């Protein structure tokens, strides 16, 4: 079987996620993948948007929307909108391909990752929230109508323990954590934003090896308020958006990296030496509590971000 029987696949169920999906497609293309790049879209995506996606993706495929309609389990995640992620199981219907790699629309490919096609179904990286579960933002699978039918049956009879696709897929592929270590992708293939602050020493040590970044959570790089954008940078001649933002906790920090090509106004600005030094000191725990990092200054940024 040749490379033309393999594809990267992403999914857009809202107009907003189409922005992220475009970045997924462009980042794969930028880094020279030899595989097809496919996007599944639901009927609520406008014809205009679908035409725009055709300039990036090899195939734009319309699929029916699926919703778990499970508010009780979704309430545990605090993300009631994730019920429609059940639509993700439609990717098993792409039987024109022998093997695919699924990438959530809120991921960013940092280099060529075609080696993922050497993995078997179901290969994925551990979820940082519960490492015996895999994170369903990046996974390798084999399209199959039989598997799709079994997943549909499982969705109807068993449902999902989190109300979304991740709970469903982990329940269906329940032996993932113990079956075959070769199906455990290294974390660098699904580096979630949360890793930046939960284990900063490891991030500083291994972060430079990251291959795919995943922007988990309700706040996405493409819908952050302008106040949250601190600087635009040029890294190795590739334009990235680096965003440092705060949420409910004053010292709860996320670093976003996002390709800006075509999705944000303006060009790029270099990192100022003083800003880089401030970031380094922050990461080392050397905050300027009496000056720039004083409580009232952080509170102002927090209030702008939450508004």
Question: Overview of this structure, please?
Answer:
- This protein has 307 residues and is α/β, with parallel strands linked by helices.
- It folds into two domains: 3-189, Spore Coat Polysaccharide Biosynthesis Protein SpsA, Chain A, CATH 3.90.550.10; 224-306, no CATH class.
- The chain has ten helices and twelve strands.
- It has helices at residues 15-30, 47-54, 71-77, 145-157, 165-172, 176-179, 195-198, 200-206, 273-283, 295-306; strands at 6-12, 36-41, 59-62, 99-103, 107-109, 123-127, 130-141, 191-192, 212-214, 231-235, 238-246, 253-259.
- The chain has a six-stranded mixed sheet with strand order 3-2-1-4-7-6, sandwiched between helices.
- The longest helix is centred in the N-terminal third of the chain and has 16 residues, at 15-30.
- It is an enzyme of class 2 (transferase).
- Its EC number is 2.4.1.186.
List keywords for this structure.
alpha/beta; single chain; 12 strands; globular; Spore Coat Polysaccharide Biosynthesis Protein SpsA, Chain A; 10 helices; 307 residues
